[in-house]
Specification:
single chain, alpha+beta, 7-stranded mixed β-sheet, 15 helices, 21 strands, 28% helix, globular, disordered N terminus
Length: 495
């Protein structure tokens, strides 16, 4: 019997012919759903793992947070029924829903919230947002009331506490959540066939269990773009969020499918390792940036679905300024800067994780840098290798990567972050932002921060990708815009 991979590969080769066939009969139940994902998460605890694929499965499905980030980026209640923020914008008091339990039957109360946040900010924490939680002081007022105080001014705290890293965990199961997650969400882990699929099943003990239209959801891990197309055409996958954009024209022309291309808060960048001697010279960094043609990268790596950016911030976000003119594509300038730096025959490794934007974009980056006289040697790695080697140990020169966190400018102030970037000017601006309450002043400081990152050519800032979802036209409740990476099963249903 051929393997599933063999079947999908064969279908991919014939995908052009399949689009001409009548609608494929699908053997499904109306309460089941199959979702495709390009990347498999290495584990299932979003509070100890950095991979965004973790949150794509468990956020709001298995684990819940105090607040809930909506499709339009607004923030609403989830585990917290309501909250109030103090006049100095430092303390937020949350009032929890009564009667909420974890999937092991234990109560979710203010003590569980305190445990979760203290753990996330502790010295031994592996939470990728540890710096955020280390600045929090959590005080239990009563079993359903918790006050969270930030060391600085943080008006975006309700949003930050709706992200996967802020999941409320049951203290007794925290140590094993990576493989046996115990949350308070409407779904719990059914099975996990590593390298193939993961299934979530509706949890009957959830407060909204009776309103769930989808009772079982299976996530299929399909990194290859052609195989993604084949799986959708064969009916093996009903929804593919964050699909490879090169498949868009084929499905837009097919009445059986719906296609949604929406905004995201992601930043696709050519990240520099500032620990490398050559990249410590601003002239070299500016030369690399001048060699990069953002529009060609958007067309080739994202099939046109992207907006150019010049700093680590995206259009539509509060305080955004257009910095794309700071380091425009300019090959003569790139060559001149390298000559001024006395750099000849510069060779750098380019680490490329599996997503198509990286592998396709990597080929374009290599060609563009070559025109400026820079040799980039491709180094393809699997996602687990990128997380452990590139992100974990800073083992890279250049890497092409999308940072999906909405509010992550603070990463540039982290001494141990994988970029190795340190700047007293940035730290001063960032510190001032943390002490500034007035929105107009915060917008000015955010603009100054963006301009500084652009002027220092901290990275090759490329584009804001658009989130592409391809799905059976009979599915309702899909998110078009993606302020956070999530598959919100509670909102989905079949017509």
């Amino acid at each position: 019997m051929p393997s599933r991979r063999h079947v999908l590969t064969s279908l991919a080769a014939a995908s052009g012919a399949l689009t001409d066939l009548p609608a494929i009969a699908r053997d499904r139940r109306s309460d089941r759903l199959a979702l495709g994902m390009a990347l498999e998460p290495p584990a299932l605890d979003p509070t100890t793992g950095a991979a965004s694929a973790i949150g794509e499965i468990v956020l709001y499905n298995v684990f819940e947070t105090l607040t809930r980030i909506n499709e339009d980026g607004s923030v609403g209640p989830l585990l917290a029924q309501s909250w109030e923020t103090s006049a100095d914008l430092r303390t937020t008091t949350f009032r929890l829903r009564p009667g909420v339990k974890f999937q092991d039957g234990k109560a979710l109360d203010a003590q569980a919230v305190k445990f979760s946040f203290d753990r996330a900010g502790g010295e031994k924490s592996a939470n990728k947002d540890r710096a955020t939680f280390a600045n929090l002081t959590t005080r239990v007022a009563d079993s359903l009331t918790v006050a969270v105080t930030h060391a600085q001014i943080e008006p975006d705290l309700p949003f930050l506490l709706g992200q996967a890293t802020a999941a409320i965990v049951e203290p007794g199961s925290a140590a094993t959540n990576a493989s046996k997650p115990v949350g308070s969400g409407p779904y719990r882990l059914g099975s996990w066939r590593r390298g193939a699929s993961l299934t979530l099943a509706a949890w009957p003990g959830h407060r909204d269990a009776g309103r769930l239209a989808i009772r079982q959801a299976t996530f299929l891990f399909i990194p290859d773009a052609a195989a993604q197309v084949a799986a959708l055409l064969a009916g093996d996958v009903d929804v593919f969020a964050r699909a490879a954009p090169r498949s868009l024209p084929q499905f837009k022309a097919d009445a059986r499918y719906q296609t949604l291309a929406g905004g995201s808060r992601a930043k696709t960048i050519l990240a520099f390792n500032h620990r490398r001697k050559a990249l410590q010279d601003i002239r070299v960094r500016r030369a690399i940036c001048a060699a990069l043609d953002r529009r060609a990268l958007i067309d080739g790596a994202a099939d046109g679905l992207g907006v150019p950016i010049g700093s680590h911030y995206v259009p539509g976000a509060f305080g955004y300024v257009d910095t794309t003119g700071v380091n425009p594509h300019d090959l003569p300038k790139a060559r001149r800067l390298l000559a001024e730096a006395g750099v000849k025959n510069l060779t750098l490794d380019l680490t490329l994780p599996p997503p198509s934007y990286a592998r396709q974009g990597g080929e374009i980056v290599i060609a563009q840098l070559a025109q400026a006289g820079i040799t980039a040697r491709p180094r393809n790695v699997e996602w687990a290798q990128w997380l452990s080697g590139t992100y974990g140990r800073g083992d890279y020169d250049l890497t092409l990567i999308s940072h999906v966190e909405p509010f992550d400018l603070g990463n540039f102030a982290k001494p141990g972050y994988y970029w190795g970037y340190r700047s007293g000017r940035f730290d001063a601006l960032w510190g001032e932002l943390q002490r500034t309450p007035r929105p107009a002043d915060r917008a000015r400081l955010l603009g100054d921060i963006q301009r500084l990152l652009a002027e220092e050519a901290v990275h090759g800032f490329l584009f804001q990708p658009q989130a592409l979802t391809i799905a059976d036209k009979g599915i309702k409740g899909l998110w078009k815009d993606m302020p956070v990476a999530v598959n919100d099963l509670c909102a989905m249903s079949w017509t």
